[in-house]
């Protein structure tokens, strides 16, 4: 069945969030900001004032290091916007989501259903994942304008808080829902059911690398 496509504002209502289903393809309109460990530590640990009105201006936090520069005249040049693995920032997310009212956390790879149930669901937030690798240029097509960049002198361009105006930016895939279910865990469970049949009749490997095992129950599918 073809995935459902959804056009969503970066300041979505609770009703719009609740209607999202695992596997939906989402395109975003409105302001999105990048925030990862540098922003989290500055805002949460150092108690610096966040230079945006959140969530009224944006409820979409992108884990991203944009391929961008600030020109001498103060304007911006942004090409690709490549997502960063979100599990690296999980420890900051409960406080960040509660403090900023973020409803959409966007990145690569996702987290576990335990994280979603503990951090996301109580705050009415969901996780959107980029689709596949090498999509930075594709997502860059959805950048209508760079509105601002905050804390670049303190944090550097990669860790700074970029504010991006999006126009049908995507595709992103809904990887968590309001019950805390995880798309990747669900699909991996389906794959695991058939692993024994896939390997049936094969002989154990003769040459092995460090850490390899022939126990199919221990195999990881990413």
UniProtKB/TrEMBL annotation:
Gene3D superfamilies: Fe-S hydro-lyase, tartrate dehydratase beta-type, catalytic domain
Fe-S hydro-lyase tartrate dehydratase beta-type catalytic domain location: 4-185
SUPFAM superfamilies: FumA C-terminal domain-like
Keywords: Lyase
Superkingdom of the organism of origin: Bacteria
Entry keyword annotation includes Lyase: yes
UniProt GO MF annotations: hydro-lyase activity
One Pfam family here: Fumerase_C
Protein family: Belongs to the class-I fumarase family.
Protein name: L(+)-tartrate dehydratase beta subunit
Species this chain originates from: Roseovarius litoreus
Lineage of the species this protein comes from: Bacteria, Pseudomonadati, Pseudomonadota, Alphaproteobacteria, Rhodobacterales
